[in-house]
Amino acid sequence: xxxxxxxxxxNIAAGLIMTIIGILFIILLGTIIFKLYxxxxxxxxxxxxxxxxxxxxxxxxxxxxxxxxxNQLKKDLTE
Length: 79
Prior knowledge:
The chain has one domain. Helix content is about 90%, strand content about 0%. About 0% of the residues are buried.
């Protein structure tokens, strides 16, 4: 009888350890997914910002806006 009680305690401890490892794995996986999502979001914002500055450069080159307007647009877009 004593043998079975010891085995039960070992199984409970092993189950608890596996549960903790599982929870830590899920937290780690969630953190990685969150960081990847945030990085891709920042990348999209940076691409949009770059495209807008390129448009401002084209308008400046065509003479549609002057240097002061171009500088103001660039400043507004990079803030």
